[in-house]
Amino acid sequence: MSETLNYKQSNEKQDIANKTSEFLLEVKDLRTYFYTEEGVVKAVDGVSFQINHDEILGFVGETGCGKSVTALSLLKLIRTPGEILSGEILFNGEDIVKKSEDEMLKIRGNSITMIFQDPLNSLNPVIKVGDQLAEVYLLHQMEYLEDELVKAREKNKRLKENIKRMKKELKTGSSAGSETLKNQIKALKEQIKFRITILDIAHKESAALLDRIGLPNADTIINRFPHELSGGMRQRIMIAMGLACNSQLLICDEPTTALDVTIQAQILDMIRELKRKLKNSILFITHSLGVIYELCDRVAVMYSGNIVEYGKVEDIYNNPKHPYTKGLMAAIPRVSKASRESELMIIPGMVPNLIFPPRGCRFHPRCDHAMVICKKVNPPLKDMENNVQVACHLYDEDKSDPELYRKLTEKEKMEDI
């Protein structure tokens, strides 16, 4: 697909979205639980956030904090025994939670696309990557492929007419120019493609897209199986599948996991550049604060199924509010001499069991600032300066009850775990 068409389609979708809703995506009090034999896993428990048009929102947090489950909920891809218990997922103002499976099939891949973790497991091992990428075009870009097929057949028709005319000239013309005409006829015949199918067009577009995202020898790569490609190549194939859909929202679920630093940087640069050109929005999920800082406009810090801090990347990096965010920042290895000579900071304790999470604030057993109220009440997100939101009782305005805001002892913090 030509870049011009990609940008045109993306801008058309952007204009439609702008007329429909203030936010491209708005999630309100989302709760996704899993009903297991051991108990109810409260994987996502009251999450709210927004994604603006033409922005990258990052989700960051430890493994198991609910980042991927939140993303899967946006597409209603939660499998049994999981269930979206409550909440709203407003995409262009329409609630996805209320939509049927048939309606979701029209949204998945067309309006919202997800790039999953581990491309080796996401790609079919017995089908060539070119066929898998072509399938995306066949499912989501059929109208475009049909137009291109008509153009290709019209080109063939014109070539045949030119050959017919030149053969006629060859018979009636002088022998002096016959050799030139023969060479021209031969060159035109080489351009003719017999029995052009819609699948041929899909493969052509697939190779063009791989070339566009920086994969060399795309014509060779599309004829390979996933196991014949490196991890970075497979990840680019997955990203290409997401881009082939021209979606308004692209969800990237840790797309650089297990890749070396060089390939990681290349993929991040590619995502940033493609977002700049296509003007779509991206939800980028990662456990790396460095990646968030390099790529995202805003960030949501997740802990144990809750968002604990939310705002612009620069504001949260320069002045983190929540003790968990501060702990994550302190745990980043530094390259200064002083940092090399000091111990690497860690967040004490373990991630809580989401079947039996701590009462109140779920971070309080690991928090150095935990107070009595932290054991009793799970704090909501509060508005702070620079449009940053934080869920922490340290920033409560009314602290008139000294007992509620008394600092907990280590023994008290562990009582309800």
Automatic annotation (TrEMBL):
UniProt keyword Transport present: yes
Protein keywords: ATP-binding, Cell inner membrane, Cell membrane, Coiled coil, Membrane, Nucleotide-binding, Translocase, Transport
Subcellular location: Cell membrane
Coiled coil spans: 142-176
Record-linked InterPro entries: AAA+_ATPase, ABC_Ni/Peptide_Import, ABC_transporter-like_ATP-bd, ABC_transporter-like_CS, Oligopep_ABC_C, P-loop_NTPase
Predominant localisation class: membrane
A single GO molecular function term of this UniProt record: ATP hydrolysis activity
Membrane-protein topology: Peripheral membrane protein
Pfam families noted in UniProt: ABC_tran, oligo_HPY
GO cellular component terms, semicolon-separated: plasma membrane
ABC transporter domain: residues covered: 25-329
Entries under NCBIfam families matching the protein: oligo_HPY (TIGR01727)
Descriptive protein name: ABC transporter ATP-binding protein
Naturally occurring in which organism (per UniProt): Promethearchaeum syntrophicum
Highest classification ranks of the organism: Archaea, Promethearchaeati, Promethearchaeota, Promethearchaeia, Promethearchaeales
